[in-house]
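User: Run a structure prediction on this.
Assistant: Running it now.
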Amino acid sequence: MKTQLRAACLTNYCEVAIAGGLTPARMLLDAGLSPSVLQEPDLMIPVSRFGQLLQASATASGNESFGLCMAESRLLSNLGAVGLMIRDQANLRDSMNVLMRYQSFLNSALSLAIEEFDGVVIIREKLIAGSTHQPTRQRTELALGVMIRLVRQQLGATWQPRRVCFEHVAPRDMTVHRRLFGQHIAFGEEFNCIVCTKADFDTPNPSADPAMVRYAQQLIDATGNSGKASVLDDVRRAILLLMPSGRFGVEHVSEHLGMVCRTVQRRLAEQDLSFSSIVNDIRKELVIRYVLESDRPLTEVAALLGFAAPSTFSRWYQAQFSCSAKESRAKLRSIRIQF
């Protein structure tokens, strides 16, 4: 099953592409997307093709912050009826609950989690690559940029996060990042997130409109989108979030989902899937990001992928890619030097 997201993710693509000297229609066709998708925001498109488009556009334009530039002028209305429902909630906490409920409908490749402690709230985002060899930097920055825009539509344009963290390395030019996120930005972190306060989450929304919420709910119900993700989507999201802790076995994932272990296994089996194969696929997606797109120590990569020991990770990597992680990095660096 292909991971998909709404074509509304292409909002502002043309403007940023043209500013970078690109021909939008040509870039879309090269990525296997029809230019007509720009006129159909509710159409579902493959995440892999969207990711290919962003990466190719960033490379061809020389704009390392291509995805982030697309996020700068995003509005909640770009999320359709779900955006209307989010916009008119009583506070940011309720808005985030709505976003999490309908996340699989908007973008099934994005895992979203809210963690709260000691008056601090962490909004974590994790992307499924969509292709084991596809960089995710552009989609990650677009996703966090859109999240910042969402928060500011409720808390005001001058609101600043306490901190914004990215897994990938810093860009050469930080201008766009500082313009959108402020000064407190960190790279090479364990996960992608936006940090704010509990007070931010509970600040009343002066523009909240319960009548509009009811209307938006009717629109959503009319489309048949209940907001319920498939069991596969739920399992993948849970594994992504739990893997760095090392507690991501089927028992832990089932508990996280509030389901009985046997039920999870049975529903996966109905789709000819096994829990272990899903874990392996996710590891293969993530390891490309950690080994080839970052300079993280391999011992750290092993821990992030949930391996009990670096030696176990090494054996797994050799079995999957017929070479060691060190050899993969060395090969990539030699290619970069040539170009």
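The chain has a mean pLDDT of 87.
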